[in-house]
Amino acid sequence: MTISTEALEILARQEIEVPSWAYGNSGTRFKVFSTPGTPRTVQEKISDAAQVHKHTGLAPTVALHYPWDKVDDFGELRSFAEGLGMKLGTINSNTFQDDAYKFGSLTHSDPAVRRMAIDHHLQCVDVMDATGSRDLKIWLADGSNYPGQADIRTRQDLLHESLVEIYDRLGDDQRMVLEYKFFEPAFYHMDVPDWGTSYVQVAALGDRAMVCLDTGHHAPGTNIEFIVAQLLRLGKLGSFDFNSRFYADDDLIVGAADPFQLFRIMYEVVVGGGMADDTPVAFMLDQCHNVEDKIIGQIRSVLNVQEMSARALLVDRNALHQAQRAGDVMGANGIFMDAFYTDVRADLAQWRESRGLPADPIAAYVASGYREHIEADRVGGNQASWGA
Amino acid sequence: MTISTEALEILARQEIEVPSWAYGNSGTRFKVFSTPGTPRTVQEKISDAAQVHKHTGLAPTVALHYPWDKVDDFGELRSFAEGLGMKLGTINSNTFQDDAYKFGSLTHSDPAVRRMAIDHHLQCVDVMDATGSRDLKIWLADGSNYPGQADIRTRQDLLHESLVEIYDRLGDDQRMVLEYKFFEPAFYHMDVPDWGTSYVQVAALGDRAMVCLDTGHHAPGTNIEFIVAQLLRLGKLGSFDFNSRFYADDDLIVGAADPFQLFRIMYEVVVGGGMADDTPVAFMLDQCHNVEDKIIGQIRSVLNVQEMSARALLVDRNALHQAQRAGDVMGANGIFMDAFYTDVRADLAQWRESRGLPADPIAAYVASGYREHIEADRVGGNQASWGA
Amino acid sequence: MTISTEALEILARQEIEVPSWAYGNSGTRFKVFSTPGTPRTVQEKISDAAQVHKHTGLAPTVALHYPWDKVDDFGELRSFAEGLGMKLGTINSNTFQDDAYKFGSLTHSDPAVRRMAIDHHLQCVDVMDATGSRDLKIWLADGSNYPGQADIRTRQDLLHESLVEIYDRLGDDQRMVLEYKFFEPAFYHMDVPDWGTSYVQVAALGDRAMVCLDTGHHAPGTNIEFIVAQLLRLGKLGSFDFNSRFYADDDLIVGAADPFQLFRIMYEVVVGGGMADDTPVAFMLDQCHNVEDKIIGQIRSVLNVQEMSARALLVDRNALHQAQRAGDVMGANGIFMDAFYTDVRADLAQWRESRGLPADPIAAYVASGYREHIEADRVGGNQASWGA
Amino acid sequence: MTISTEALEILARQEIEVPSWAYGNSGTRFKVFSTPGTPRTVQEKISDAAQVHKHTGLAPTVALHYPWDKVDDFGELRSFAEGLGMKLGTINSNTFQDDAYKFGSLTHSDPAVRRMAIDHHLQCVDVMDATGSRDLKIWLADGSNYPGQADIRTRQDLLHESLVEIYDRLGDDQRMVLEYKFFEPAFYHMDVPDWGTSYVQVAALGDRAMVCLDTGHHAPGTNIEFIVAQLLRLGKLGSFDFNSRFYADDDLIVGAADPFQLFRIMYEVVVGGGMADDTPVAFMLDQCHNVEDKIIGQIRSVLNVQEMSARALLVDRNALHQAQRAGDVMGANGIFMDAFYTDVRADLAQWRESRGLPADPIAAYVASGYREHIEADRVGGNQASWGA
């Protein structure tokens, strides 16, 4: 089985947005390890991201986190990025690190805190205007740790009210994507715990509000590709936050924990039109490289998405549907698995080279000397992490 | 803390529907144990159910399963039930035990099988007309065991088409409730795996289509009371299938595995208006008494719901909201737990007696000699189980 | 990367025992589907198993279930199997389908029931003497559904006493393997729920008592390859029951739900000496083919184990250890994944042919006409299932 | 049902060790909230802990964390504590916050890092000599995030070697307890992930090495009371780290998430002799008060343990065993639940008063003005948290 010309065309336009914060330090509540060469500024983060794109051709856009990536002049930052061949992408709001948000932000019982949180999001839209970003991504840490602590029901209504105000501020070409998460940092209830809640909240807003699906934000055992299929069917899959997990929101490299799951997800994306030319779906990484090299980790990640997309595009859908309709379980599964088991790496390497990219992006990056350069150069200052 | 007069009024109108199949044998794929006195006919099941109501005053309605409880004349069965002081309740369809449904029913790729499954549901509505039942409950075993086996996306559309036809057959006073389930009997994908899917499917039908929440049908760790609150907010919580679980769909006695969870659920029911006079929520049991006495198991179950409802009604909601608004986590949690820890059993026993019911329903049932009677009487014939 | 000569030698001696019951009907508590051609007798099951071996060369042994596969003369059955080129393997006891075992077998509080259960196992050893089987496999359904129902602590002591008596009956060349299971059919506690319990019980018996690891019998998220490594280190991994799962004990085809997990397991088997010439580890399937063709399902299963073994043997362990010692996370992971992603299927097909086996065992089986033969031949009688 | 005199005697000698770090700030990887009055020094932590004991009479001992609680003179610290009526308890080692431990400590492939980690533990024993502590608690963050990253098998052997050296340093009256954890901070494999691993490691050391069971460190659905029963049976339950969880290692207040589970655990403790006069079991809290008042949270925690112990002691064990032996599932469960549902709070309040303690410890603490005092007093300096 080889990758078809049609599939290569689809792969040629594939873009995976990388998160600025992946290049900074991250960790667990137990320890954040620092590493030589870690960026101190958003510019350095963008430079690192540009390396990923340079060697893969897959990642021309960097998502920003506000206020972690706050600068005085976002227009200037845009120019800086463009100078590196990069675009600025999704703006990620942050209402979980201010003391005021201890008991919630857009859902807080205190109108003053809600006001503050809404205003923060309005500022994010201002940033979007300057950066040319299309999407505002809202992930809320809002929730509670103890039964009785919060009024679950009322908070849904407050959330709706807050979102309406933010949604109304969006420009015609701008969108809001609302992320859901099963748990953490809240340990009893989350205000947006599942796709159903995100869906009903964005459906109440309008066409430009959509769901963001983070692959690590589900209960154990959840069939994620089903949700992908359902949201595409409903026209409400706005974006992916790709990563992988063995246990909880582990934020490992996408495809690392369960490559077959990534394949199944990409297959439903293909089936549901998510890789079409006019797809509404933004593909993004949202990962933490706690112990591994960050830039290599990002390169590995976008390649994993590319490789599994290629495998998903290999599925012989006509034969599959025939087997499905015939009730031929083993036949259908066999066709599906055949695509998954096909080693597309050599073909992709060759194709990459034909497009002026390195056959082996990781080797090319290692050989480039970039790492030695930043380790020598980035001495002193405060390494970026989740706190800044 | 004692139960208020207002709370007692609410408890006085509480009704929990019992399932006919709980009185028959059930088990696991490994073994179904039979027990002396098990009903052979639907009439015997209703007689057993009447015992639960007799001693508790809580369970005047029996849900039927079609075709397990099929009789020639459902009007006659209705009269039989009424003669025992019982009503016939929700009609449960069954599209999982016919060989034709091996690969689906309402979602099957073959139009002939879908036709058969739709017709089965139309027959169920005929039964409802005869029994005076309000609700048609649809639980689908539809799904697949292997990736690639089924076309997940298309099946959602087929499900919608099938449901439309069934919904259109409903009378003005009849409703459809669509149950969701995380897994089993399908082990890769279920066509209605979560509340979100059930919600979007019933929302596309109309006002008389609602969600049925079975407390055992969620992924590990799911915050069920959140879903209860959300569905009540959306006006789409049609009914509960009560039971409890430690692992999967264990179908244990409601409140047995996690009494505190039942308390939290009942609290959200109270908050969301689910115990109001005009509540749209039907409270039902859906359990299996694999190893325990079935009638005692059912009595225990309705009492558990009553006791946890009483505790939920004990919560000092004014004080709670004050503590919540003040960010007093321990205070709010303390108020909540205080209600849970209050032993309402003696008060309820006394109140039960004041209404002409036994203080101890299980003791009264045991003392009644009913069990000895049915063990002696029900000799020969085929004991009812899931197969019939 | 190609499979080394040394690896092919290891693969050449690989044997995967198949379970007689996989050829009979199986299902869930909701429905057992029957299929044309299903065996009615143990002889027919062995004939089907012989097909798997014929086309793969991987499965020369059939495990029996007692009393499902009870015959008057097990010596004769042995000859029958040998006539088909098959051996009789592990004897699986059954103490979960007799009414007496409702509340336990080897752990029952009633000495008479324990006696009965012990005697059953002694009979199993008699069968082993006749069949030449090495292993007695004990899986216990013992447990309870409700807190308080059983005396968890005392039952561990009773289990020990019962096992001692069975162990003492074993011949010098016979072994006992004790399986553990997280839940089902008991839904509150299982008497042997985890590898720790199985280990402490068999360690208290002696060298010929070992643990049986069923890949579907763990809590969600459990790192199974860790347990494999640990048990091999302790010298107590007696056997595998291979299957796969998305949710609970789904009993799907091994490698179907998570091929990468199977790869990781086989890698630890290789590392721990489990594929050495004198390995104490018996590799067995224990699966249910509820909706798929059973013989094809079995062929697919043994091929999956073979393919993942081949991939595991591809891992460049020297390079891996070097990367591990250097703290090169991405490098080590890359070496590991490289082996997993390598498509060994063509190489294996060629090698299979070189050994006189079909390149494509499933195609060969389908082309053989065996299925048409048994469908025409096996008419009437009672199809085998878990009940018989 | 009232608490028996015998039960009150048991309760009178109950002690629950509190962790020094519970009084400092804690949080998630997303945010650590600070609060006025948080201790800056270990002395201030001990002062706070003394408040818990003062109002409950339950918590005379404080566990220390090394090096978080490092002081120049631990003998002096011991005197300080004694001056407040407190003892110093378990010493908790820390090999997860030094950069050297990025890839492991006692299991690290580099002998120099293992040496450093072993030496750290030997220092901990020095501290124990000075503080008079009996127990050294070892919890290891050791593990890996990616398949292939680490040599799972070899690390078990290295762990054994490291533990031997530490064990050999212990005095005759000192013990080692080895904690296990399912996941976090490592997300692929943990070197001590389950009770089985902790058990085989400590069993290989000797009598003074035991298992530490943290109630939040298990896979979803794990029956913890079974493990409690098993470890008590094996004589290897050294200590509890109490807390509660809805999802992962949430570190909520013990009994907060599932009070019934705490009851079941305490019942097995009672049954297994864990509350006997000479119990080897140390009862400790290990919790994080991320959003709630820390001292009140600790008071609530020890009271929860006391209340559930009282309920567990209420179980009519004779009647229960009779029902168990009779196979009376509902009867046995009813006896068990009766104890759980009995509201012991008023009885305990009265008994507390009879012993010179406040009926309502939380109210007494609030009324004491201690909080206002520390908030005014502890201004400036660095609030203690996990980092120091």
Question: SSE layout and pairings?
Answer:
The structure is a homotetramer of 388-residue chains.
Chain A: H1 5-12, E1 18-19, H2 42-56, E2 61-65, H3 74-83, E3 87-92, H4 111-131, E4 135-138, E5 143-144, H5 152-169, E6 175-179, E7 189-190, H6 195-203, E8 209-214, H7 224-233, E9 237-242, H8 259-271, E10 282-285, H9 294-314, H10 317-325, H11 329-341, H12 345-354, H13 361-367, H14 370-377
Helix pairs in contact in A: 2-9, 2-13, 4-5, 7-8, 8-9, 10-11
Structure description:
The structure is a homotetramer of 388-residue chains. The mean pLDDT of chain A is 97. Chain A is built from 14 helices and ten strands. In chain A, strands 1-2-3-4-6-8-9-10 form an eight-stranded parallel β-sheet. In chain A, strands 5-7 form a two-stranded antiparallel ribbon. Chain A starts with a helix and ends in an 11-residue tail after the last helix. The first copy, chain A, has one domain: Divalent-metal-dependent TIM barrel enzymes (TIM Barrel). In chain A, helix 2 crosses helix 9, helix 4 runs parallel beside helix 5 and helix 8 crosses helix 9. With 388 residues, chain A is an alpha/beta fold. The radius of gyration of chain A is 21 Å and the shape is globular. At the A-B interface, helix 5, strand 7, helix 6, helix 7 and helix 8 of A face helix 5, strand 7, helix 6, helix 7 and helix 8 of B. Chains A, B, C, D: Its EC number is 5.3.1.14. Chains A, B, C, D: One of its GO terms (molecular function) is L-rhamnose isomerase activity. Chains A, B, C, D: Keywords: Isomerase, Manganese, Metal-binding. Chains A, B, C, D: InterPro entries: L-rhamnose_isomerase, Rhamnose_iso-rel, Xyl_isomerase-like_sf. Chains A, B, C, D: This is L-rhamnose isomerase.
